[in-house]
Design goal:
This protein is an all-alpha fold and 160 residues long. The protein has a domain at 54-159. The chain is built from 6 helices and no strands. Helix 2 packs antiparallel against helix 3 (37-53) and helix 4 runs antiparallel to helix 6 (79-159).
Length: 160
């Protein structure tokens, strides 16, 4: 039988991918935190503040805090002071945690999409390996048939 027509060589990224697993926000934070002690501290502090401020409870607390000064702003009678209170005090204090809550939800959805994509890619890889095995079997069968045809051709040439 002839040498195989094709030699499959697995790409090195496949082994890397199996070790890494799907990407996620937590893995990114761990990677950043492992770079240096300062980055580790800053990452943990930033994540801790983000997790505590990025809640609806923080939005409620900030709204109550902003309402402490609403009487002073309204009683001034100055339209610019009232608008400034709404824009600089209320909106900034209340919208910040609400936006973080939304971003946390989006990050979770992104992590879920990344995990699903990883699973899909793993399935596609397994299917590709099956295709490679099928093609190898077909190559072997084709080579065997070609060997038989060559033997028959040689036998016919000897008879004539």
């Amino acid at each position: 039988m002839a040498d195989p027509i094709f030699h499959y060589v697995e790409h090195p990224r496949i082994a890397e991918r199996e070790q890494e697993g799907p990407p996620s926000t937590r893995k990114t934070v761990r990677k950043i935190a492992s770079e240096s002690p300062a980055k580790k501290f800053n990452s943990r502090l930033g994540l801790g503040i983000t997790l505590s401020v990025g809640t609806m409870w923080a939005a409620y607390i900030f709204a109550a805090l902003a309402l402490v000064s609403v009487y002073a702003a309204v009683s001034s009678g100055n339209l610019i002071t009232i608008v400034a209170w709404i824009a600089q005090t209320f909106l900034q204090l209340v919208l910040l945690p609400i936006i973080i809550v939304g971003q946390n939800i989006q990050a979770s959805a992104s992590d879920a999409r990344a995990a699903a994509t990883y699973k899909d890619a793993t399935a596609i890889l397994a299917e590709s390996k099956q295709i490679q095995a099928h093609l190898a079997a077909q190559d072997a069968a084709t080579s065997a048939l070609l060997d038989k045809v060559a033997a028959l051709e040689a036998a016919l040439l000897k008879k004539s």
